[in-house]
Amino acid sequence: MTERKTKLTIRGLTKRYGAATALDHVDLDLTDGEFLTMLGPSGSGKTTLLWSVAGLNHPDGGKIWIDGRDATSVPASGRDIGMVFQNYALFPHLSVSENISFPLEMRKVSPRDRSLAITRALEMVKLEHVGDRFCDQLSGGQQQRIALARAFVANPSIILMDEPLGALDKKLRDHLQLEIKRLHERLGMTVLYVTHDQEEAMVMSDRICLMNQGRIEQIGTPDELYFQPKSLFAADFLGEANLIPSRITGEEAGCLIVELLGMGTVRTRSTPPRPNGPNVVHFTRPESIAIQADAENKANRLYGHVSEVVVSGAITKLFVHVGDALMKISLLTSVSQRVREGERITIGWDDDVGRVLSRSQKEAA
Amino acid sequence: MARVDFFPNATARRRFWPKWSRLYWQTVPVTLLLVAFFVVPVVMLLGISFLDGRGLPSIEHYRRLVEVPLYGKVLLTTLNVAFWTTLLSVVGAYPVAYLLAISRGSTRNWLIILVLLPFWTSFLVRTFAWIVLLGRKGAVNQMLMAIGITDAPLQMIYNFTGVMIGMTHALMPLATLTLLAVMEGIDPNLTKAASTMGAKGGTRFWRIYFPLTMPGVASAALLVFITSLGFFITPALLGGPQDTMIVQLIIFQIREVLNWQFAGAIGVLLVITFMVIFFFYDRVFGLSVMGGGARAPKPAPRSSIRRCCAHVGKTITRALAYVTDALIGICSTPRMTRKSGAAGSRAGLYLVCTLILGFLALPTLFVLPVSFTSEAFLTWPPTLFSLQWYRLVFDSPVWLHAAARSFAVALVTATVAMLIALPCTFALSRNNFAGKSALFGLVVAPMIVPNIFIAVGLFFLFSRLGIAGTTFGVILGHTVIVIPYVIVTVLAILKGYDRNLDHAAATMGASGVETFRRVTFPLIRSGVTASFMFAFIISFDELTIALFVTGGRITTLPKLMYEDALLSVSPRLAAVASLLLVLMSILILISELTRRKGGTRLGK
Ligand SMILES: Nc1ncnc2c1ncn2[C@@H]1O[C@H](COP(=O)(O)OP(=O)(O)OP(=O)(O)O)[C@@H](O)[C@H]1O
Ligand SMILES: [Mg+2]
């Protein structure tokens, strides 16, 4: 596959609201056709970043390039984007097809091509029959799909979506996730997506950008973010994690020797960024820990007592007391490998799944 | 116990009747009062126009209306004045309402007060201020001559210009508040969404924002238009003989000629004018638009007029969008950044709004300096400083009695109106019952029907009942016109009240009365207080009802001022106006601040 060219470049983007800093020197690159999802706690600056890319706010510093051209002072109307607003922002005084027609009219598409494109867009979201209705005569999910159709119809080169599925029920959300994904694959535009929902981010994105307090905490593929978090914040924000206060006691053959306080000593392959100072937090995902027979051939082994077993369908969760600490372990539920509460248990993991993270969040940045 | 679910009909009936009877007493006082002192007198007034001098049915008055050209001419003048007032008021109000809608926090609060102060300041005081400003020896003429722009004073009042200035000044706040209600409901993301689709500034305004504000423009225009049709204070004080409006004819017929039947006939003419206007309005915009809300009228399939208007409107806004974009394109140089462009349009908006708000707020202040003049008549600049005119007012038993009576009337009116309107408002806001919309219509009708009808009708009725010319009569009349305001403002508060709070209290074991006393009332108290104050202000300021119902025997403060102003415009009047202005401003500030405090508590 050939190297894709860069679609969007952001350097040093800063946006302040009074004393509060919503964006703090953000750098970001998007390749053409990429699907990047912004994830982060409420107020971390996701919407602000999206609006800066759209040209809807005035950054206090930094620059934005689109297709290699400086777009920092280009107004929103000149950026060739499509945007789905969190609250849909459908024009209430226009019918559904007039709504979808609007971006086409702005791009001076001829009336004939326009009606063709509208029909196709409505077909795409499977709402052919609602063209003449007004938006308040549609259900929330239908409005959402119209907003999607309106963002996609003019084939913009960048699509921005701000929690577009936020208000929908699980089933509709799953359906529309697939629909968006399919549209993206078929039309190949660059997508910048904002969501609160980790699962959604994992399912849909090429890369995830984790935001925290106006800064990018970590950016990478869903897999990287999940299994190789670079900071305590990233480890804690995504999914569940065993975060054990630890001390680095030595180094041996490319491995750090880490003392999990009150639990025992383990070895972990040193992966950058390496925290400075010996006091760290040791991170493992509950999924990367094996038990009993499976644990025997792992590099790190510890022993403990099962304190609680929770079977939730396909996944079984174990809570295991090791020394003073409690480890969470997720296993696929199996009939053969039954564990009972109170049982003595061996747990183990390889030396490349554990990671050491800086204790305070500042140091990691 | 019997299982009632086997008898669905029986339960339905059982539930229906108690509900009916409970609502019965809550709404009954208001209904009775309005039927007796609003519907009956107005119908009577219009009815007697079909009788002749001997009390027999005849259409002689209508023949006279048609045959004498004067009346047609006055109707045309009235429509002309109303049209221009509407145009100027709405055009002026639009940018101010927009600025209010987009500003936040304390800026917004102060801007609102700047609009509300003139809204609630007495028409009389404001009209009087214009006389001070625009008269031959008024402030404006003195200034123009001092600068040397003119040698002789310009004629700015006692003609059409004067009427226009006075009426626009009087009604622009109403238009602003109506527009604001709609603009606040518009999602600011919509224009942003349009810009992400490639729409430039002009297109965003004309094709997205403006159509969305259209319901507000339409209802503001209708409100201003029908209110101007019923005006008489401003044309009487600021206009010349050729600017006589139709209500002045009614007043003339009753006060000078004592021809009630012909006055009634002129009233019918005005009613017909109203109905024609409502008819066309409904055809074009739909009367449902009156309710506000940022939803544009939908093309009703049955109304071809509306569809046609929508089409024309669309074409016009498109053309305007194109022209505006082109103009912006020419004016802005390529070097101009996005930021400076936005800052430029902001500055333009601020400039325009400052001018308009200045026009609204400043003129009234001119009554203050002239009230301290030491000369015997109004001059500009006034020769300061003397309290002689205030002394004159406070030494005069006539003025003091009038003030005392106005105060008492306002206090009693506001109290009575609150007492009977509150239960009715609760019933209206919380329950659905048979005849609810009819009751609501009855309740807001006195707001729409010009006060002159109520005033004349009540005088007619009261003369027969023998209570014309009594303070009691004035109180009754004022209660009728104050009730709609009380109900509408309290309804707005109750709409923002989360009924789950009551349910929550009930789950904690509070009885209905306890819930009201401990939860509901504390939460709506400030709103109710503000509403009481507005009722007080309306009654204290009211002229039309007082002018007729007092029947020359007793007088209220506004009536005394009006009659004084018709005779001569003296510094004494300026002193009274100043006192009134200061007093009212304090009252308005207090009630606005209490209302706001309540608003935040209700989480709005
Ligand atoms: N118009 C504004 N005025 C003042 N502060 C603002 C404004 N918009 C955003 N902020 C502040 O900027 C910060 C980032 O806001 P932003 O809306 O980008 O967060 P977000 O990540 O989108 O949050 P959420 O997930 O809740 O939507 C927040 O602290 C917010 O309070
Ligand atoms: Mg957001």
Automatic annotation (TrEMBL), chain A:
The keyword Transport applies. PANTHER family: SPERMIDINE/PUTRESCINE IMPORT ATP-BINDING PROTEIN POTA, SPERMIDINE_PUTRESCINE IMPORT ATP-BINDING PROTEIN POTA. Belongs to the ABC transporter superfamily. The keyword ATP-binding applies. Gene3D superfamilies: 2.40.50.100, P-loop containing nucleotide triphosphate hydrolases. This is Putative spermidine/putrescine transport system ATP-binding protein. Keywords: ATP-binding, Nucleotide-binding, Transport. Residues 8-238 form the ABC transporter domain. GO terms for cellular component: ATP-binding cassette (ABC) transporter complex. InterPro entries: AAA+_ATPase (IPR003593), ABC_SmlMolc_Importer (IPR050093), ABC_transporter-like_ATP-bd (IPR003439), ABC_transporter-like_CS (IPR017871), Mo/tungstate-bd_C_term_dom (IPR008995), P-loop_NTPase (IPR027417), Transp-assoc_OB_typ2 (IPR013611). GO terms for biological process: putrescine transport. It comes from Xaviernesmea oryzae. GO terms for molecular function: ATP binding; ATP hydrolysis activity; transmembrane transporter activity.
TrEMBL record, chain B:
It holds the Pfam family BPD_transp_1. GO terms for cellular component: plasma membrane. Signal peptide: none annotated. It is a multi-pass membrane protein. Gene3D superfamilies: MetI-like. Keywords: Cell membrane, Membrane, Transmembrane, Transmembrane helix, Transport. Residues 75-281, 403-591 form the ABC transmembrane type-1 domain. CDD domains: TM_PBP2. The chain crosses the membrane at residues 23-50, 70-98, 110-136, 156-182, 217-238, 258-281, 348-372, 407-428, 440-462, 474-494, 527-549, 569-590. Coiled coil: none annotated. One of its GO terms (biological process) is transmembrane transport. It is found in: Cell membrane. InterPro entries: MetI-like, MetI-like_sf. Belongs to the binding-protein-dependent transport system permease family. CysTW subfamily. This is Putative spermidine/putrescine transport system permease protein. It comes from Xaviernesmea oryzae.
